[in-house]
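ok trying this again, last paste got cut off
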Amino acid sequence: MVVEIRPARPEEMEEFYRVASTALVLPQGQLQGINPEWTLCAFEDGKLATAYGAWPLTMRFNGEGIPVAGVTFVGTLPIYRRRGYLRKITTRHFELLHEQEERSIAILYASMAAIYQRYGYAVVSTRNSYHVEPRFLQFALPVQVPGKFRELGSSDDEFGLLVDLYRRFRVNRIGYSHRARAMWEAGVLRHPPAGGLVVKVVYEEAGEPLGYTVYALEAPTTGPVPGQRLTIRDVIWLSASAYQAIWNYYAQMDLVGELVWDRVPSDDPLPHLLLEPRMLHTTSADGLLGRIIDIERALPKRPYPEEATLIFEVVDDLCPWNNGRWKLETSIAEASIKSTNEKPQLMIPISTLAMLVFGQINATEAVRMQRLDVLDPDVLPIWDKAMRTLYRPFCADFF
């Protein structure tokens, strides 16, 4: 048996998509667009056994845009499973990212988080979902909404308005992706379900755009009660009045029996504003998984809100260049990191470090969860302040 780890060739891409769709049980038409050079696959005796790809993405990293690898299309045909092919591919991919010195973080959405946590990934964001009847969208403390909505068309100018509002919204956030036009068209602006439609509306005050929302309406079902199903695809707001205006807009959907938003940030304000927040029927799931490929290059790229000196030790089975003791010096202006022989304050698994850097949990919480060992308890408040983020980590896109 001969096993080869390499990118798929152009003439092998049809088989690449077939393997991925079979492993993930997804229609093959949903899997498209990745370039052969962005793939890394396992071939057994010349047959494609495991598919694996990585989009070259840019992600907001606590307000800074950084290049990341968006891992996708991962799957092994059942007849080749339990042979360690995904581990071989993942290890090789991490080595390549380290050698190329460009993308020091990998991110993905997992069909099973357990698969990837074995490779040093961690759940670095939480994704909530709402299922609510529009009649329950009533605010405990309504604010004045002086503006109005208008429906957007399909011109480049109208598309540019969406892009501008999205860019302004994500500016200080962590986890949000930079959307190329292809990402818009495959995600928020993708075709509606059969028999349905997609609607884009922008909220303006005195002619100034302050938010938008995009949603899909499905054809109504028959029955004695309203049967339309409305699925929110995007909610962007730059002011409290814009946020409440968007939900007032949805509250007027009298023919909608079910309103669904399944990509909700964990710090979304709505549960704290409604008269009956339990009627959102909020559920939570893991969102992004993140993996720090290169500590030395990743951590200085992140803005920090405090001046601090953080000394820690890491053990990393898949990325040995991360092993050892590190000294991270942060300030509002810049950050730097170097290897050190100084006594560490914390002993941190590489996965827990990702959770701290993304702001999913802080160091004090990690100690309570036994996700790290603390050697100097006095430094925990310093770590908590230095790793603080303005917003909870989240990514509104699926890739």
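PB: full thing came through this time. The domain at 3-103 is CATH 3.40.630.30 (Aminopeptidase).
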